[in-house]
Design a protein that fits this description.
The complex is a heterodimer of chains A (about 260) and B (about 150). By secondary structure, chain A is an all-alpha fold. Chain A contains 10 helices and no strands. Chain A has helices at about 5-20, 30-45, 55-75, 80-100, 105-130, 135-140, 145-165, 195-205, 210-230, 250-255. Chain A is flat and about 105 Å long. Chain A starts with a helix and ends with a helix. Chain B is mainly α and about 150 residues long. The chains are: A mainly alpha (about 260), B mainly alpha (about 150). Chains A and B meet through α2, α3, α4, α5 and α6 of A and α1, α2 and α3 of B.
Chain lengths: ~260, ~150
């Protein structure tokens, strides 16, 4: 019987080799074997995770996990930055689905709106700005792929190992369900208590200072971005063209 | 056991997202891809926060995930401004072109060896249309099988 540590190490090794193969390095190298190796390595590591719940729960969650991690691998190994951005959108959708399973409806919707609707659109504009005339070399080559893959895989292996060893599933663990949605009766404050209202009450009841600080941070980021981008404007009117000889000069009159 | 195992699975997915984002950040040379890899790391962290919140039966995990999202949005705004400035200064999106902004004492990463512009494939041959009002010049062989073009 192979021990869990051996399976974990084998999975890490497969993922390492697969990532090194799949990262863009060199001209037109076939990267499908790399993706297959990464998939098999991740599946090997995932096989150590104990079962949680029934068939429906497991299939939903592992399906979402497949979408998320597959899109993440496709994002970091894609040669074209536009495709990487779209794969990032798919990863966000997968993460939103996983978060939705935990009953965090507002967070998952906010994730989609903010990440895909705002951040991804901004980055798409930036990708469109610098359009190289050909397929630029710097998109087709990665930078120290072995060290990068080693760092990532070691991190994944360490966290997986600590998860699997430290949080060993014990008998008699509490079957705590997420905060249940009550019937549609209003409580004392006149709101129908849903998960979102409870989140709002938690957010603004326990963390009002943090929320205000976040708003201030966003405003400062906006102002800072404007200051960084701004360049002095051309004057709207060229007042020198209005000057007539003999009359007081408009340009000299201005402060 | 169910909740514990669910937590383990979600934490593993969050760790994988974080590790893959780390790989992407360290290995790619395109500035936009580096930023997207950082956002991928933040996704993993958000997932970990929410799953810990569910495990403890509290909402503070989701609250912190919202905080992470707000900080990510602010970071994207500043990243937009910085990259716009770089593009304006004709540096482009290659991060190795702005190596002179690094700290002193670090060696220079060779760039000219790896730089090769692969020419884009030739554009598809669009049909050449004559000017409006003029009869097109039709080759003989086309007229054989198409009496009217």
């Amino acid at each position: 019987m192979v021990s869990g540590t051996t399976i974990l190490l084998a999975g890490m090794l497969l993922t390492l080799v697969g990532l090194f193969w799949a990262l863009p390095w060199g001209a037109d190298r076939r990267r499908v074997p790399g993706w297959i190796l990464v998939a098999s390595g991740l599946v090997m590591m995932a096989s150590l995770i104990p079962a949680f719940g029934g068939f429906l729960a497991r299939s939903v969650l592992w399906g979402m996990t497949l979408v998320t991690l597959g899109s993440a691998v496709a994002m970091i190994t894609s040669v074209r930055p536009l495709y990487s951005a779209l794969w990032f959108g798919m990863t966000v959708l997968g993460t939103a689905g996983l978060i939705l399973y935990h009953g965090a409806e507002f967070v998952s919707m906010a994730l989609i709106v903010v990440y895909i609707g705002a951040i991804l659109v901004v980055f798409l504009f930036l990708i469109m700005l610098d359009e190289p005339r050909g397929q630029a070399g710097f998109n087709r080559r990665s930078w120290e792929p072995f060290i990068a893959s080693l760092a990532g895989v070691v991190l994944i292996g360490l966290v997986s190992g600590s998860c699997l060893e430290g949080l060993r599933p014990q008998d008699g663990e509490n079957e705590a369900a997420p905060t249940a949605v009550s019937s549609g009766e209003k409580d004392a404050s006149g709101l129908v208590p849903t998960r979102t209202t409870e989140l709002g009450q938690e957010l603004f009841g326990s963390f009002p200072l943090a929320v205000e600080a976040l708003g201030l941070l966003l405003m400062l980021a906006l102002i800072g971005a404007t200051v960084i981008i701004a360049r002095p404007l051309e004057p709207l009117l060229d007042l020198r063209s209005w000057e007539t000889p003999g009359m007081p000069s408009l340009v000299e009159w201005l402060p | 056991m169910s909740e514990n195992a669910l937590l383990i699975q979600q934490l593993w997915v969050g760790a994988c997202l974080f590790g893959l984002g780390l790989v992407g950040f360290l290995s790619r040379r395109n500035l936009i891809l580096m930023f997207l890899s950082v956002e991928l790391m933040l996704q993993g962290v958000s997932l970990s926060f929410v799953s810990w919140g569910r495990f403890h039966g509290q909402l503070q995990g989701q609250v912190f995930a919202l905080f992470v999202m707000a900080v990510a949005a602010a970071e994207a705004a500043v990243a937009l401004a910085l990259v716009l400035n770089l593009v304006r200064a004709r540096y482009g999106l290659d991060v190795l072109k702005v190596q002179h902004l690094r700290e002193d004492g670090l060696g220079e990463i060779p760039r000219e060896v790896e730089e090769e512009e692969i020419p884009s494939p030739p554009p598809p041959s669009w049909p050449r249309l004559p000017r409006v009002g003029r009869a097109p010049v039709i080759p003989e062989e086309v007229l054989e099988y198409r009496p009217s073009v």
